[in-house]
Amino acid sequence: MSDPFGQIGLFFLNLLTGLGLEAGLASFLLKVAGAAALATGALFSTFILIWGERKLLARLQDRLGPNRAGPFGVLQTVADFAKLVTKELIFPSGVDRPVFLLAPLLVVMSVVGIWAVVPFAPRFIASDINVGVLYIVSVGSIGTLGIMLAGWSSNNKYALLGAFRAVAQLVSYEVPMVLVMLIPVMLSGSMGMVAIVEAQRPMWFVVLAPIAFVMFYITSLAENGRAPFDLMEAESEIATGYNVEYSGLMFGMFFVAEFLHAFTIGGVATTLFLGGWLGPGVDRYPLLGLVYFLAKSAVIWWSIIWVRMSLPRIRIDQMLALNWKFLTPLALGVVMVTAVADKIGPAGTLGRTVVQLAGNGLILVFALLGVRAYAARLRGRPRLVRAPPPPSPSLDAANR
Amino acid sequence: MTPLQIVFLLAAAFTLLSALLVVTRPNLVHASLWLIAALAGVAVLFVLLEAAFLAAVQVVIYIGAIAILIIFAVMLTRKVMSDAGPQVNRNWWGAALTAVLIFGGLVALLSQVPAAWQAFPAAVPSADAVLEALGRSLVDVNRYVIPFEVASVLLLAAMIGAIVIARPPAREEGEA
Known about the structure:
Structural class of chain B: mainly alpha
Radius of gyration of chain B: 21 Å
Mean pLDDT of chain B: 80
Mean pLDDT of chain A: 81
Order of helices and strands of chain B: HHHHHHH
Number of helices of chain A: 15
Largest sheet of chain B: none
Helix content of chain A: over 70%
Order of helices and strands of chain A: HHHHHHHHHHHHHHH
Strand content of chain A: under 5%
Distance between the termini of chain A: 76 Å
Structural class of chain A: mainly alpha
Helix content of chain B: over 70%
Largest sheet of chain A: none
Shape of chain B: globular
Number of strands of chain A: 0
Largest interface: A-B, 27 and 25 residues
Radius of gyration of chain A: 24 Å
Number of strands of chain B: 0
Strand content of chain B: under 5%
Oligomer: heterodimer
């Protein structure tokens, strides 16, 4: 049993050819069935993910969370789903019907599509294309399109405002995200996901490029639209934003996409930085790889929920300033350091590792100094809102 | 017919239909959506040609950036919900002539490629090798490094220009 996933594929192929189909058609049908199974599995996993997230949120808030339907409330999501399915799909007057219907589909597609290139275990990957990283970026950009179409077709000012915010955020944060996704590509010398995982055998990339990993995490949070970057769905400011006019299952699809995206971030970050399915004993028992992959992804997923519960929403100007004045220059610096280290020697040599780590340390020091100077300048600046009137003329003069 | 041919015919028909709808839809946002559909169809054709890199770049740049920019501009500048202006203006014959000329030129150019009329195209080297050759030629001094750098300088100039235009006047900053 050194190659269980390959053998499963071979078994089904033999089954289909045994039924009298020609080999080309059989493998084509098998690929279609595999894609359908993967997408369905990803969507069904959201039942567990939503339940798990609500449980974790509840524990972080010192509550119990869903605990009535089924053991530990595990059937709560099924009940919610049944409720959403039975609700009417309302089309408000003035909506652009085909676009209104298309938007949630695009958003779900952009998240499910990422799973096509994520390697779960050795030989267990839907499609090991040689441009896997670029594929992830391109599929993600379709989600931006879906959100904008949702906001526009709803014929609602708040929805359009939310869509504008969403597009500003998603397009901006794509820049540093793509830049730091270059780091694993440079370290491994390939854009294929399997090659990136294999290149991490000696050392996970999170050790070689810690700053890139943290930046990938932050920008992925923004791409997901989770707190503290949830200003495209600000209930208190713009009546929830782009999905305000949606009801029933179409509304549910946006949420399925969001909850699945959180775990997808875990999967992609695990593959790019945490060694994917690598772990002790994985070469003898490939099934262990699946366990390692899911465990690592779950740790990232859990930390995303933790961050969501801990940090308040940031303002839109802070969101844009963080991206363009801090993350993007930092990402360019990290890319430059990695490129210089790449010229020092082949992968795995001591000189390259030292340059890589020293460069990361330098960037960290300069970034922290920069943040410190920025915070000091911000503290010295006069406040926008002055709560009490200035007590003495001397302080007022100092402010000016 | 192999499954590949069926997929090709479906994708080609879808691309042509979308391209036709781009120029016939009265609503500008719908037209740009059909433009996205046509570009996605072209991306499928790239996939069928085993050019996965071009397909991914097609989606990232044309759908992820340019099409979103077009939709953004249309949404911000016009009353799109009620907009149904005339489809053609006085210069329609010029546009049609240009389109026919470009089509004829492309056909003439492609018919000179020796493998153009064969049922089975010449075997391409492995996709990885093609991708690596493309990457190397972009940074090779003897190949395309100069055009590559000129293009990046052009983009940098455009970016600086955009920042200068968007920058608020210097006076306001002190008053805030």
